[in-house]
Design a protein that fits this description.
Number of helices: 1
Strand order of the largest sheet: 1-2
Shape: globular
Largest sheet: 2 strands, antiparallel
Helix content: 10-25%
Strand content: 5-15%
Distance between the termini: 26 Å
Radius of gyration: 11 Å
Order of helices and strands: HEE
Length: 65
Amino acid sequence: MARLVAALAIALALGGCTKGDECDRCDSDDDCRQGWICGELTPVDGESVGKRCVSGVGETECRVR
């Protein structure tokens, strides 16, 4: 899974996104800043946190309410 996310991040870096910092809500990759992807985060406590902008490199941890 991590390899897939990394591959997507590299591909998107060429196409580009324009906004959205890490952990910002998103609906598509276009909502995120360049080189980042809109991904579904895996919740730790079982509650869905929805899609967020992530780098696609390594793990991303977002604190959400």
